[in-house]
Design brief:
The chain has two domains: 22-57 and 66-168, Galactose-binding domain-like (Jelly Rolls, Sandwich); 176-357, SGNH hydrolase (Rossmann fold, 3-Layer(aba) Sandwich). Helix content is 31%, strand content 24%. It contains nine helices and 15 strands. It has helices at residues 3-22, 58-63, 98-102, 187-190, 201-209, 226-232, 250-267, 288-310, 340-357; strands at residues 24-27, 33-34, 71-76, 81-87, 104-110, 113-120, 128-134, 142-147, 154-161, 167-168, 176-185, 211-217, 239-243, 273-276, 316-319. The strands form three sheets. Strands 2, 3, 5, 6, 8 and 10 form a six-stranded antiparallel beta sheet that branches. Strands 12-11-13-14-15 form a five-stranded parallel beta sheet, with helices on both faces. Helix 6 (226-232) runs parallel beside helix 7 (250-267). It is globular, with a radius of gyration of 21 Å. The model is unreliable at 1-20 (pLDDT under 50).
Length: 360
């Protein structure tokens, strides 16, 4: 390494390290956390109630430790902000960014809309992480929202701010936490493969509607487990979205869907429920078997849906897959899981259905 390059690196570190060193770190235990069905969890930063530990299949329980959809709300007059966090697994995947898997996203409320500030990117191959998110802000109080990792868990979290700054609970009641939109689904719903947490479609929609969304997405495991149906009705919801189709086959749809629905309906007798068709994956245009499988599954969904309608069920609707991902085959990372482009298109696709059927 030449002297000029070494001097440049030392200069860069000299600018970076003092900023981190100047931050005072605080516990966030007193700050409100959203995106959960219940606070009765084993630890604060997870999604499933502790009571399901002995009831759920092991993969579902393990995925409940992932913090997809959780977000912290606070306000502060700090000029700089950083994070320290310890991960549950330090998970890595070959088709998703580490920032999406195990990083954080910070947003700021600006005239009623949430604006991206920056991400807290994780260290390479480390359970413990520290990152500066932003510096050189003015000292006016701002309302912030911090999105949690999509595909890992968080054991400990500390928020860094100026030593003289205040970190306090929010004043603005946004996103509205009364009667959230509760969503059940697959790896796509969990956030695979958004580049950063804020780009998962449920987080996009939460910002657009300024309402809390609950992400009950379980990668590869939205298999219509009945205890999850019970959980879906645990909080009064403004809308329930059932987006499980990529994880089930025709046999499972025929065997479990009606009972799953009726458990949810018993818990939420008046809430509109949306069923979402299986996405039309890009390779379906070329792979005849994939195309037929998707068609068969969506047909099975419609059969159950119309049987429910015939039995007198109301306030249920199907969201069609046509148009979900555009027409250019450019919205996935691996032919199945969505890129940020895919998630934006999916959010746009779901938006009018949620707007029409959400009980405000």
């Amino acid at each position: 390494m030449n002297v000029v390059k070494l001097a440049s690196i030392i200069g860069f570190l000299g600018c970076w390290l003092p900023v981190l060193g100047q931050l005072k770190y605080h516990s966030v235990e007193s700050l409100p956390l959203f995106g959960k069905m219940t606070d009765q969890t084993e630890t604060r930063y997870e999604r499933l109630p502790a009571a399901l530990k002995t009831q759920s299949r092991e993969p579902v329980w393990g995925l409940g430790k992932n913090t997809a959809g959780l977000y912290l709300r606070f306000r502060s007059n700090t000029t700089a902000m950083g994070l320290k966090w310890t991960l549950y697994q330090n998970r890595m995947m070959n088709h998703m960014t580490e920032t999406g898997i195990k990083g954080f996203d910070l947003y700021c409320l600006d005239e009623g809309k949430w604006v991206f500030v920056n991400s807290a990117r994780p260290q390479v191959n480390s359970l413990t992480n520290e990152a500066r998110i932003v510096a050189n802000m003015d000292t006016t109080f701002k309302e912030f929202m911090l999105y949690f990792p999509l595909y890992d868990g968080v054991v400990d979290l500390q928020l860094g701010a100026d030593s003289s700054a205040t970190i306090a609970p929010p004043l603005a009641g946004l996103p509205v936490a009364d009667k959230p939109v509760v969503c059940y689904g697959t790896s796509i719903q969990q956030g695979g493969c958004a580049s950063r947490p804020g780009m998962a479609h449920l987080n996009i929609l939460s910002r657009r509607f300024n309402r809390e969304f609950v992400n009950l997405g379980f990668s590869g495991n939205a298999k219509l487990d009945y205890e999850i149906a019970e959980l879906i009705g645990h909080r009064e919801a403004s809308l329930i979205v059932l987006d499980f189709m990529p994880n089930v086959g025709v046999e499972l749809i025929e065997e479990r869907l009606e009972k799953f629905y009726r458990i949810v309906r018993q818990k939420a007798p008046h809430t509109t429920i949306l069923f979402v068709e299986n996405p039309l994956y890009p390779q379906a245009a070329f792979d005849r078997r994939v195309r037929q499988t998707i068609a068969d599954k969506n047909a099975a969904l419609h059969t159950v849906f119309h049987r429910l309608i015939a039995s007198g069920e109301q306030h249920i609707h199907i969201v069609p897959a046509l148009g979900m991902l555009g027409t250019d085959n450019e919205a996935t990372v691996d032919g199945v899981h969505f890129t940020d482009l895919g998630f934006m298109r999916y959010a746009n696709h779901l938006y009018p259905y949620i707007e029409q059927y959400m009980n405000h």
